Amino acid sequence: MNLQLSPADARFRDEVRTFLDSALDDDLRRGAERCGSLFQDYATNIRWHRVLYRQGWVAPAWPEKFGGPGWSVVQRYIFQAECAAAGAPALAPMGLGMCGPVLMGYGTAAQQTRFLPRILSGEDYWCQGYSEPGSGSDLASLSLRAARDGDHYVLNGTKIWTTHAQHANRMFLLVRTDPGGRPQAGITFLLMDMDTPGISIEPIIFSSGDHEVNTVFFEDVRVPVANRVGEENDGWTVAKYLLEFERGGGGAARLEALLARIRRMAAATDASGHRLLDDPDFSSRLDAAAINLDAVRMSEFRILSALSQGGNPGPASSILKTSTAALNQHLTELALEVTGIWALPHQPEARQPDAKVQPVGPDAALTATARYLNNRAVSIAGGTDEVQRNIVAKLVLGL
Ligand SMILES: Cc1cc2nc3c(=O)[nH]c(=O)nc-3n(C[C@H](O)[C@H](O)[C@H](O)COP(=O)(O)OP(=O)(O)OC[C@H]3O[C@@H](n4cnc5c(N)ncnc54)[C@H](O)[C@@H]3O)c2cc1C
To answer: Is 72:6 a contact under the CB 8 Å cutoff?
Structure first.
């Protein structure tokens, strides 16, 4: 692996920096800064999405023929790292990073023509309907029933933990089309409009006060057979393909920005003239985090290297998922510590991008508690640590 930027890549990095300098206005920066949730709030996300769309940069990983910018893997990495360093909002992955790649890999020409441009423009906002009560890690046991009725499937059942279902106008989901035989063999992958009659959404509120996930109920919901991706009862193949992309990484740059922020806060002098950075225990934990960050970055490079040679992320994405989650959680603990007493006020209203209330304490402290609480979920969402380790044991170590 050559880790030096070529002169052309260095020029590209400068171009990205210049763009970010002018494109990121105060509202976008504040929206990202005040985001304590796992996902960027919808309003900030969609504003930034449209800015990038107009620039032609909203889908760095998409092939040119579907509207991607035609960047190399290294350029994609540079873009991601520069966005994180500049404090840009993170885009929602459900359309660009999950449904889009699935449609490119398994969708019909009609589905690609209908849905891909709307993902790019931000007209469609997708949510992911995989998990059900009782079917998370053991996803193949899912039971939301889809019975065939002429040109439609009729859906009855429940999805849970559905991120941003309250904002989405479309959902991609897994349904049970054959209740007999091997569980994996009776699953089908569908695309659905969220305003179809029979759908109701109930919020699940995080301990931080944030509303990010939901329970979605289905009662006789009719979905056209034309919205099926892949063959009936072969949805498991499509579902697994998507999960590799979901766990594909890209978090090191954001963690690096968070580590730098913690260092800056720890270097500030408090009212009694102390700096937390001078505390040997705290600074050694910061250094340990920096070493772990290097390991995460190297794992990302390994995946990039595989991708640049035409491969898929493969099981390495599971290694990256667990190590990124662990570091993420560790950094949010350090951030909480460095925030001190200002972590105590519970003020979710002040974190809203259009907040009219003045935050209690310094701005930099506003998100520390919410990020700490919400990030407990990163070792669960997208596949738990234990499940990732099982994948590594089987596919990497051959156990
Ligand atoms: C914040 C958040 C957002 C989410 N967003 C979405 C979304 O948008 N769409 C969606 O479909 N889902 C979403 N999920 C659901 C997520 O994918 C599941 O929570 C996850 O797969 C775990 O499933 P579960 O919650 O049913 O836990 P369970 O599978 O019941 O696991 C419970 C515990 O048992 C352990 N365990 C289970 N099986 C094994 C095993 N074989 N070996 C060892 N240990 C095991 C687990 O590691 C865990 O500790 C989200 C979850 C969270 C927390």
So the answer is: no
Closest ligand 1 atom to 133 CA? 26
pLDDT 10s digits, 33-54:
999 999 999 999 999 999 999 9
pLDDT tens-digit readout, 130-175: 999 999 999 999 999 999 999 999 999 999 999 999 999 999 999 9
Pocket test for ligand 1, best of 125, 137, 158, 167 (most atoms within 8 A of CB): 137
Does ligand 1 come within 6 angstroms of the Cβ of 174? no
| Domains of the chain from N-terminus onward | 7-91 (no CATH), 126-234 (2.40.110.10), 247-396 (1.20.140.10)
Q: Assign 74 to helix, strand or coil.
A: helix
Coil vs helix vs strand at 217: strand
The verdict on whether 232 is a catalytic residue reads no
Do residues 126 and 98 make contact, with C-beta atoms less than 8 angstroms apart? yes
Cα angle 188, 191, 196; round to 5: 115
Question: Rounded to an integer, what distance in angstroms lies between the CA atom of residue 322 and that of residue 388?
Answer: 7
Quick check: CB of 175 below 6 Å from ligand 1? Answer: no
Is the CB of 387 within 6 Å of ligand 1? Answer: yes
Ligand 1 binding pocket includes 386 (Cβ within 6 Å): yes
Yes or no: say if 264 and 276 are a contact pair by the CB < 8 Å rule. Answer: no
Candidate list 132, 246, 256, 300, residue with the active-site label? 246
> Kind and range of the H or E element at 188?
strand 187-193
Closest of 92, 52, 88 to residue 257, by C-alpha? 88
Shortest-distance Cα residue to atom 12 of ligand 1? 131
